[in-house]
Specification:
alpha+beta; 318 residues; 17 strands; 2 domains; seven-stranded antiparallel sheet; Rossmann fold
Amino acid sequence: MEVVLRTDGLSKNYGAVTALDGLTLEVSRGEVLGYLGPNGAGKTTTIRLLLGLITASAGSAQAFGLDVAKHKAQVHARLAYVPGEATLWPALTGTETLHLLASIHGQTDLGHRDLLMERFDFDPSKKVRTYSKGNRQKINLIAAFATRADLLVLDEPTSGLDPLMEQAFRQAVLEAKGNGQTIFLSSHILDEVEALCDRVAILRAGRLAEIGTLAQMRHLSALTVDASFPSDPPAVGLVVGADGGVYTAAWEPDFADGWHGWWRIGGLVAPQGAPVHCVSRNTDKLDIFVTDSGGATQSAAWEPDFADGWHGWWRMGS
């Protein structure tokens, strides 16, 4: 398989601060790589290095076998980039902006661009200053996908898009993949990554923490249960999920008093026909019960913390 993108020990320091530390990875032709990490993990720094916008402190990055720092023009002729924030020319119309971006890149499939404008429900007749954030982002997406570039570098590309337009974006990514294009996708939307990516790389504090397929990432997953007790926590060892699986549970104190902390729910010990893990996006359907060493059972009810229903905490009851 042809390697389109490769980094070897890629690092970037800002004084005493290490933004990226020894990143080594490869992305093959036709692959969609999801690049995940919390804010400040080094994702945007990585992308700026891949584009040759900043100079590496150590290591190297190559695209199409060319050093991105030494061959910017040749590399940029074969890639398209979508930033998370659309900074465009406010006095131009959408049509004028798309024409300008096409002339800058030098390679645009005009028929495909028209199709993308229809799919993204984009009206190009208005001035850029009048567009919402989502519509400005549509300009970047349409311009990038219309190039049919060999490599697409997407940094939080669906920022500002509504759910319907996110579906149009996913269709465009899958079509690009089907055409043999390579996609480097930096995203914090887990559902998006699950739907699109062949492999996922997780960055933490500037270092590559994990990389692998989605199946491998699920194998590494764990569920945490927050709880507090007025005295020493019970010796809880197992959690039974609504899927029929029995999972190990370990108490990890959060404070020195040992009363407060959280439960790490992990390895499957009694499948009973259950799936490999119990971590589920449908947390409202994941009823669990905690049984202590004395035989007492407590229910655990999920209480979402955000509107998406994915994030929250478990309330331990009787």
